Amino acid sequence: MITNIEVLPVMSIFDTFLNWKVFVQTLPLLLSGLTTTLTLGVTAIALGFIGGLVLALLRLYARSPLRQITVAYIDVFRSIPILVLLVVIYYALPFVGLRLSPFGAAASALSLVSAAYSAEIFRAGIEAVPKGQFEAARALGLSPWRRMSDVVLPQALRIVIPPITSNSINVMKDTALASVVAMPDLLKQATQAQALAANPTPLISAAVIYILILMPLVRLVGVFEKRLAVRGR
Amino acid sequence: MTRAIIEMKNVVKSFGLFMALHGVDLQVKEGEIVVVIGPSGSGKSTLIRCINQLEEHNGGEIIVDGAEVSHDRKSTVLTEVGMVFQSFNLFPHMTVLRNVALGPVRVRGLSWAEAEERAQRLLARVGLADQAPKYPAQLSGGQQQRVGIARALAMEPKVLLFDEPTSALDPEMVGEVLDVMQQLAKTGVTMVVVTHEMGFARRVADRVVFMDGGRIVEEGPPDVIFNAPRDPRLRSFLQAVLSH
User: Fold this and answer.
1) Residue B234's domain spans which residues?
2) What SUPFAM superfamilies does the entry give (chain B) (predicted)?
3) pLDDT at A24
4) How far apart are alpha carbons B146 and A138 in whole angstroms?
């Protein structure tokens, strides 16, 4: 009895949390979950990017009612917790006849919120472009659309690379919330695998996979920020 | 009889409570070189910024090339007006060649090949043929401003506006920009130049306009303005700028 207590902790850490056999057995399941997570993340990031750009332009340049609606959208979707939005979309909308797949519900919730955050980032970026650039573009006679696409946005996008990358990391992390609506993402597959193997190793593996995927991006933001600071001096 | 290409009638511009222009009348004839001088805050920059509607005037009339300009209808007439800025305002993300070619492609409908050929020709004219593939940040201030002039010329405007084109330059670079402008003046293009360079005004202007407090106080040929100024404000201004 006493010897057991002394030996068991060391053994059990490996057996329980870092069990090689369980890891190998459940890895295929985790990798299929990872594919789903990445697909969801990339979809939401892309939609959020496009939506954010449109919202930012509407907020800055649209006429009165449309501009207020845009501001309201941005404020509402920056205030609502993504998990709440996801649950509403998945469990409440079917009552009005809108039934989305788990992937559809998760992609909608993530991109609706990401668009609101991206809109504020793009707006800051556009506002950071010097006034003289707008004036020079106008003085040349460029149309409002061309002023944006040729002169302002290329400069604004360069400015917002660090915060947009940061936001993309957040979206990628928030994909884990999709497991709540039974989407077979990395976290869901990991909990599934844990139940099957009666061992938490898959959860640890999933955590490590998240970190391995996202840490390079986190580093990248630091590099971007440093480069921008040097150029700005 | 050469016709007026710019006609400003009783033009008023205010920024909130501050009146920048108190009913200005100014006519510029085709091919004329008008130099606008005056102390800072006298409204000279506002005057030319109203001509191409970078500022919207609050009253009066501005007619460019026979058509009245206003803030919303500006696009058609105002492509005939080129502008050179104090701070150059080149597009930093484009090469020098692209900076000059952009307007002709987007506004005049030239192909990139045609526009770049035109740009190359204009860059040669301002002495920067070999700088075409560089980015603005790689050029000196004087070179950037000469690109700014080439960019404005590329639109083949009927009027060129210069808003203190040498004020942001190091002293040793002022000459190269003024030389280019003086060459330009000989080609018959209409120019309205806001500047503190009195030597340039004396040599190049057909007419000098002196502004103070948002009004045109005195105007006339350069030898009259500089040698026989009548208004006491003009006299004290000239004394201040010419004495050092």
Assistant:
1) 4-243
2) P-loop containing nucleoside triphosphate hydrolases (SSF52540)
3) 86
4) 19
